[in-house]
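A student in our group prepared the protein record below, which I am reviewing. This is what I was given:
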Amino acid sequence: MFSLVIDTSSERGCAAFFDGREVIFQGNFPFGLNSSQSLLPEIERGLKYLGRKAADLSYVAVGIGPGSYTGIRVGVVVAKAVAFSLRKPLVTFCSLEGFLPSHEGSYAVLFDAKIGGVYVLKGQASRGAYEREGKVQLLPLSEVGVYLQNVNNLLTPNSLLLKQKIENMYPNWQWTWEEKGPDALYLSRLSEDKWRRGEIMQKEPLEILYLRKTQAEIEKELQKSIQY
């Protein structure tokens, strides 16, 4: 079974081809929110390296956020184009699910939502198994402390600004921070399980987990309110 897993929602992009549950090619992405620009070249490089065609794919899987507005859209557009043009199943997943801790115990994945606050998802890690607690949320910084009570490990694709903001808000709290990218192998297993259960997307609509309005949407609503 030949599959492609894509996630470009954060500064650490991911595009990997799998034979069953074995990684046979993983793309190289520059760190940063422009990493999605490397997506198509890396997919093409992977197919050439493997001597395969996109038509050989059994399915395509893609992260639908939350995270970088542009990054998510690029990943989703590319995944939809590949899957639907070739009539292949398309599987989606929450991008925060791909971030796994190096240590057992309680953990939370955090993405910086800038002025919107923080995207968060909690879980428990035990003996190589990962159990999510609730759904991904968008929280203001003032509510993050309560959410992270009894959490030991914090994971993020970019800790530079986010860690400082949270530690400034909660100077007496102690967490272990881990900066890393999504685990492509785990996302492949997650996606394959969904594919086997028939949890695939139809052509429309494909709901993206933005969780907050874009600046363009805010301005559009403002213009409407002025008109009325």
